[in-house]
Design a protein that fits this description.
- The complex is a heterodimer of chains A (171) and B (344).
- Chain A is mostly helical and 171 residues long.
- Chain A contains 6 helices and no strands.
- In chain A, helix 2 runs antiparallel to helix 3.
- The longest helix of chain A is centred in the middle third of the chain and has 26 residues.
- Chain A starts with 7 loop residues before the first helix and ends with a helix.
- By secondary structure, chain B is an all-alpha fold.
- Chain B has one domain.
- In chain B, helix 10 runs antiparallel to helix 15.
- Chain B is globular, with a radius of gyration of 22 Å.
- The chains are: A mainly alpha (171), B mainly alpha (344).
C-alpha cells in the first residue's frame, strides 16, 4: 500500500521551520508590510501545530482570528501611520542586539527543558488516544469552566467599553 | 491486480487506472474539484454578462461560438493571457504577482468541505463551517496587500474601502450562521445538510437567511455594495492596476468566491443536495446554487450604489443586532418544541 500521510515528525519539523523563520522575518523585514506578512506566515505555522495536536477547531480559529483579523489590524495600522517606503529602516538590529536575542532564546530553552526534566515522570508520555469531538467544547466551557468563561466575558466587555471611551469624540 | 511498485507495463497501467478511478482522485480533480470549478467559473462570467444584458434590454455576448456566444469567456481568457502584464513603477513585484494566485487558491480551497452530494465531498471534516470561515476571513488582508502592492492611489483607496466593508459584514455573516448550527447541532456541513431532509432551514431560520444573504452581497462586493470598485470615483477600485493574466486570476478568484458563497447559502438554508429523486443529488445542488447566484447577480442590473456611511452603519448596527437577536429567537424556537415534527 502507498501511504500518502506525512509522518508527523516531518510535519513537525516543517511547521517549526515555518513558524520560526516567519517570526525572524517579521522582526527583520525592512518593509513593515513584509513583516506583517511574515507574521501571518508564522501564525499559520502555529495553526499547523494545533492541527497536528488533533485540535482542528483551534487551528481554524487561529487562522480566522490571528491571520484573518489581527494581521488585518496590523496592516491597517501600518498603512494609516506611515506611507513612505522603508529605505531608512535598514539595519534595524545590529549584531549586539542579535546576539542578545540569541542568548535570551537559549536561556528560555534551557529553562523550559529544565522544567520538563524536573517534572520528568509526572508528564504524560503519550497523547490521548482519540481527539475530542468539537461538540464537547461547549458543554466543557459552560459546565466545567463557567467562572473563567464569565471572567473572559467581563474582560472583553471592559475592553469594548474602553475602546468606546477612547474613540468617543466630545462635541 | 494492483501491485506497487509496478514492474511490467501492464501493472503500471493497472496502477494508473486504479488511481484515476479512485474516489479521492475523482472528487479532487473532476467533481467537485478543479475541472468542475473551472467550468463553472467560465460559465458564470458568461452568465453574468448575458443576464445583465437581458435585464438592460441588450443582447450581450453573441458571436463567439455556440448558442448566445457561450464561448466568449474562452476568447476573453485567450486575449487576457496574451496581453502584457503591466507592473506599476515601484510596485512590490512578488506581492503584485503572488497575491492573485493566492486569491484563486484561497477561494478554491473551501470547496474541499462543501458537500455536493452525500458522497460527493472531498473532506468530510467536523469543523467544515469554521474552515470556510477561516479561509474567507483571509480575503480582506489579501485585498489590502494587493492594493498596497500596486503602489497607486486608486487601488489603495479601494483596498481600504474593501477592508472596512468586509470587516463590517463578516461578523453578522458568521453570527447569522450560528442559528443554523444550533438547528442542526453540528458544524459539519454534511450533517447540516442531512438535518434538512424534512425541512429546509430557510423556514425556521428565515431572519438569518436574510442577514446572511445581505452580508454575502457585501462580502462579494456586489451591487449595491460595490463601493471598493466604484467606477466613477476609483477607476476600478483595488484591482485598477491589474492587467492581463493578473486581471484574469483576480476575476477567477472573485467568481469562485461568488460560487462558494452561493453554495454556502444552498448548504446552510436551501437543503443542500435534497430534492426529488428523479435527478441525482449533485444536479439538485448545482441548480439551487446557480439560482442563488442569479439572485446575487440581478441587483447589479437594477440598483444604484449606496454610500460608505450607510454601508458601515447597516453592517454594524442593523445586521449585527438582527443576527444576535436571531440566535435567541432560534433557541426559543428549538426549546418550544414547535419544530419537533421535523426532527429538530
Amino acid at each position: 500500500m502507498v501511504s500518502l500521510v506525512i509522518p508527523s515528525d516531518i510535519s513537525f519539523v516543517v511547521l517549526t521551520a515555518v513558524t520560526i523563520i516567519g517570526a525572524i522575518m517579521a522582526l527583520q523585514a525592512k518593509e513593515l508590510i513584509y513583516g506583517a506578512i511574515a507574521l501571518a506566515i508564522s501564525f499559520i505555522g502555529i495553526a499547523g501545530f494545533f492541527a497536528l495536536l488533533d485540535a482542528p477547531y483551534l487551528a481554524m480559529l487561529q487562522i480566522a482570528i490571528y491571520v484573518g483579523a489581527v494581521v488585518v489590524l496590523i496592516l491597517f495600522t501600518i498603512m494609516l501611520v506611515r506611507r513612505e517606503r522603508g529605505e531608512e529602516m535598514d539595519k534595524r538590529t545590529d549584531a549586539a542586539e542579535g546576539s542578545m536575542g540569541l542568548w535570551l532564546a537559549g536561556l528560555l530553552a534551557l529553562a523550559i527543558s529544565g522544567v520538563v526534566a524536573l517534572a520528568g515522570t509526572s508528564l504524560p508520555t503519550q497523547a490521548p488516544a482519540a481527539s475530542l469531538p468539537v461538540s464537547d467544547l461547549g458543554p466543557a466551557l459552560t459546565l466545567q469552566y463557567p467562572v473563567p468563561l464569565i471572567i473572559l466575558a467581563l474582560l472583553l466587555s471592559a475592553a469594548l467599553l474602553g475602546a468606546l471611551v477612547l474613540a468617543k469624540v466630545e462635541r | 491486480m494492483v501491485v506497487f511498485p509496478p514492474t511490467t507495463p501492464a501493472e503500471l497501467i493497472a496502477l494508473i487506472l486504479r488511481v484515476i478511478t479512485s474516489h479521492t482522485f475523482i472528487t479532487i480533480i473532476i467533481f467537485p474539484g478543479f475541472i468542475h470549478l473551472t467550468l463553472v467559473v467560465i460559465f458564470l462570467t458568461w452568465y453574468e454578462r448575458k443576464l445583465l444584458a437581458r435585464i438592460q434590454l441588450r443582447i450581450g455576448p453573441l458571436y463567439a461560438g455556440g448558442p448566445g456566444g457561450i464561448l466568449q469567456p474562452l476568447a476573453d481568457g485567450v486575449k487576457l493571457i496574451f496581453k502584457e502584464v503591466m507592473i506599476p513603477y515601484k510596485a512590490s513585484k512578488p506581492l503584485f504577482l503572488g497575491i492573485p494566485l493566492m486569491m484563486v487558491f484561497l477561494s478554491a480551497l473551501p470547496f474541499a468541505v462543501i458537500p455536493f452530494g452525500q458522497h460527493w465531498v472531498i473532506a468530510n471534516i467536523d469543523v467544515g463551517l469554521v474552515f470556510v470561515f477561516a479561509m474567507t476571513s483571509l480575503f480582506p488582508s489579501m485585498i489590502l496587500i494587493f492594493a498596497w502592492a500596486s503602489n497607486s492611489k486608486y487601488p489603495f483607496l479601494g483596498g481600504l474601502r474593501s477592508l472596512f466593508q468586509q470587516v463590517a459584514y463578516e461578523i453578522p455573516m458568521w453570527i447569522s450562521t450560528l442559528s443554523v448550527v444550533l438547528l442542526a447541532g453540528s458544524l459539519n456541513l454534511v450533517d447540516i445538510v442531512k438535518a434538512q431532509e424534512k425541512m429546509w432551514f430557510i423556514v425556521p431560520a428565515f431572519l438569518s437567511f436574510i442577514v446572511f444573504f445581505i452580508a454575502i452581497m457585501a462580502e462579494l462586493e456586489r451591487l449595491p455594495f460595490d463601493l471598493p470598485e466604484a467606477e466613477p470615483e476609483l477607476v476600478a477600485g483595488w484591482y485598477t492596476e491589474a492587467s492581463g493574466a493578473i486581471f484574469m486570476l483576480i476575476f477567477m478568484g472573485l467568481y469562485m468566491k461568488l460560487y462558494l458563497m452561493s453554495s454556502l447559502v444552498t448548504v446552510l438554508f436551501l437543503g443542500g443536495w435534497w430534492g426529488p429523486a428523479f435527478l441525482p443529488q449533485p444536479v439538485w445542488f448545482i441548480i439551487k446554487t446557480l439560482i442563488v447566484a442569479t439572485f446575487i447577480i440581478i441587483p447589479r442590473g437594477v440598483y444604484p450604489r449606496i454610500r460608505v456611511d450607510m454601508l458601515i452603519k447597516t453592517g454594524w448596527t442593523r445586521l449585527l443586532i438582527i443576527a444576535l437577536a436571531n440566535i435567541f429567537l432560534t433557541i426559543l424556537l428549538i426549546n418550544s418544541g414547535l419544530l419537533a415534527a421535523w426532527g429538530i
